[in-house]
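Teaching note: in complex prediction, the entire set of molecules is handled at once rather than each chain in isolation. The prompt given to students was simply: 'Predict the structure of this complex.' The entities are:
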Amino acid sequence: DTGVSQNPRHKITKRGQNVTFRCDPISEHNRLYWYRQTLGQGPEFLTYFQNEAQLEKSRLLSDRFSAERPKGSFSTLEIQRTEQGDSAMYLCASSSTAAWVFEQYFGPGTRLTVT
Amino acid sequence: AQRVTQPEKLLSVFKGAPVELKCNYSYSGSPELFWYVQYSRQRLQLLLRHISRESIKGFTADLNKGETSFHLKKPFAQEEDSAMYYCALDSGGSNYKLTFGKGTLLTVNP
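The expected output is the structure of the full assembly:
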């Protein structure tokens, strides 16, 4: 297991286009999180899943954003009608509720540039 | 609402000098605090958590509830400690979302 993976690593899109990112968590992890990180800021929580259920969404997640985890394994984050303000690094993390200590393992991120 | 403040964006020290990265938080409950580190071209990774009271790579951090602080300390900095450090809070042990500070870029000069 190579850890959390994210694809693509970089995405350049034009304003108004839709984009979709994928996250593959560590295989035995039942929790999956999405964060967004802009320049000079720490990661900001967007949403999280436990198995296939989306349990919380941040107010940062506008109606143009949607996330899914259909089989409780990989997850996708879709942004519709992208805006320049969506340009950021999108981070995925996973964790296990079975672990006796809490730790989120992060992926390398997908860097989105909206032109 | 919870908040994590890291007052220094940049911190530069010489090799062998002590280093302290500051972190203050605001949260009304009993938080769990963490330090995450991101080395150049690597992903974000956990450095240490307050509940474990551990020392990792010579770093320690003590939770001071009176001062609402969780400063990261190392007595003798090494060049390989150069990285971005983020303090993070998990509100009340709910084990789901982390609130991060803006980070401090530590540079250890030879």
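Point out the following to students. The two ends of chain A are 35 Å apart (CA to CA). The mean pLDDT of chain A is 93.
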